[in-house]
Amino acid sequence: MDEPATANGAARPDTGSRAARPTLAAVARAAGVAPSTASLAFSGAGPVSEEARTRVLAAAAELGYGGPDPRARSLRRGRSGVIGVVMDERLSDAFRDPVNVLTLDGIAEVAGEAGTSLLLVRSPLDDAGLVGPLVDAPVDAVVLIGCNVRIDPAVAVLRRRNIPVVAIEADEIEGAVPVQLDNREASRRAAAFLRDLGHTAVAVVTLPLDGTHQRGPVSAEREAAGIAHTSLERLRGVRGVYPSAPAWEAAGSSVEEGRIVGAALFAADAPRPTAVVVQSDVLAVGVISAAFDAGLRVPEDVSVVGFDGIPVDDSLFHRTPIRQLTTLVQPFVQKGQAAARAAIAMLEGAPAQPAAFRSELRIGDTTAPPPAR
Amino acid sequence: MDEPATANGAARPDTGSRAARPTLAAVARAAGVAPSTASLAFSGAGPVSEEARTRVLAAAAELGYGGPDPRARSLRRGRSGVIGVVMDERLSDAFRDPVNVLTLDGIAEVAGEAGTSLLLVRSPLDDAGLVGPLVDAPVDAVVLIGCNVRIDPAVAVLRRRNIPVVAIEADEIEGAVPVQLDNREASRRAAAFLRDLGHTAVAVVTLPLDGTHQRGPVSAEREAAGIAHTSLERLRGVRGVYPSAPAWEAAGSSVEEGRIVGAALFAADAPRPTAVVVQSDVLAVGVISAAFDAGLRVPEDVSVVGFDGIPVDDSLFHRTPIRQLTTLVQPFVQKGQAAARAAIAMLEGAPAQPAAFRSELRIGDTTAPPPAR
DNA sequence: TTGTAAGCGTTATCAG
DNA sequence: CTGATAACGCTTACAA
User: What CATH fold (topology level) applies to the domain B183-329?
Assistant: First the structure.
């Protein structure tokens, strides 16, 4: 972290070793036209005679001018053409989770069509509430994705800056346009499905309840102190059917993590559950793996329900008897698209466009009636 | 964090959607100081009396000023604090490949420490050679990652703009700082290892040779027309030991793709290879899976060597007899870090810092002598 | 320490 | 269709 070395103290900011780039004004001068005409020649927005245009382009080529500087353009236009995407994990972790990737894909698709690019920002909320890179970055709008941490401060800052904020599956936030999923209701449906199969001993494996990456049984206090909207809603959904279902918190969403938590779960002193509701497919795969390792058959001895409907089950189950996970399929990509659309709409001055999506229970072969005892 | 409850005039009239954001000048005026002082109060870079600072901050809070506008700041400073990362795939595909993710992670780590954020840009090279979003985005430097397409035009444009370019594993490009990997030499070593084991019938499964996502046997013409530096180099490495090894091109880097190509490979009329050199671990997993499906044991009937050394072998092999892939382990994360460092160094005016890394052959349990026949 | 002034490179406006 | 001119909001050398 060295100090940027503008040490030579020149009058202009960047008079370092780099050759000064010609400006549009210089091109105009060389072409013998006014700056405004040169500008029009490049932006294409406005009437320019064919002759003037070619002269400008020629002069540009001559001088090695690469087109208008985006920085100046964004100042002048008040727009940078960039949408910030905020995630609250290290990028490597975030990218490892198909949910984020698919959502991002939806965002990227819509953003790309609109000619805007994506600025990746790790959620910048230190304990101090610092909002660093997020506010120093030239973004026109921000999409908050997978928020396990308290984001209100960030939203507050962005609001003050008049930067539209879209929050995917966040708690109700003042000033952020929500893109919601029926997490609670969907989880309730999954639980009801298990209940109808006859299950009475149901456990839950939750996604992280906050940004601290803790792992283990979820105490009442921990649950009450939880912040992560999605995890809590999904948990509440199950609790609507099984009010006292024990819950285990995973420290992340990965197969390995699911395996660890699953191992603990099946090894616990408590009576073994006959069904486990897992808050993500990736975790569910790990839990299933742990079940096998513990000598349990799925679904004969224990049923497992996932969440997400990620399309990679084939590879993950390839050498197991399982063909398809029972899970709640959610429309990630569409969620991402909706978020991007909402963001773009807002920065064009259109009214907020909240969105809400439903998950569908897809019944695979990881659920069955509980074993006769 | 809350609005100061100055009872009299604090409430800003909420002027509909177009509430003009206050400027630093306005804040300075309200605080009774000069703009420059207000600027220093925010940037922290320069001497400001405690009293002035608090007055400025108070005025800012009063007016709902959220800090200096990054757009204006970047124009003035000639820097936006953003590094562009260019990938030549759809983001969803790119993120699905651990190689990209890990590289990106290395980039993000270094960039984050330097206070710069990452702008994700899909490689914009239409057949027309358009370079759209890449040049309109306010980036200080660009890192090209995983380039299967011809990137010269993009680099040319960026050069003209004085934007430093770092290319990871690209062919030698005028004006781009290279971050290289010993693809050819490493592949040669892997091939030599197989030769020493006694293999004579060796096939290659390649990564895409260009951006067209073709799949199938690699003809001499196709090979000659190939663009993707990495794939070609790795292929050449094997050819250094097995000059006429048949090659099959995969249409991407995924387990599923590996399985498809592997199935074709093992079903082909040609004599079955006793060893397969696969250009990525992800593909290799698929090839191994295909081998099992074809009734072949790995490594007894067929040896498989991968490339990359991605750290997820455990999950992928979890229900197979295989514990570890024989592969060439490359330092992705360090590559990403080096790329980011090079980019940052350049935009600070430092001389170019090319980098080159080595891959290590890690011998797992997917390779063995060929079956006695 | 603080104030003054001069841009940074564009684009929008409006008159010719 | 073209040209002069005024911002866009901020930073920073330099003077006070």
Answer: Rossmann fold (3.40.50)
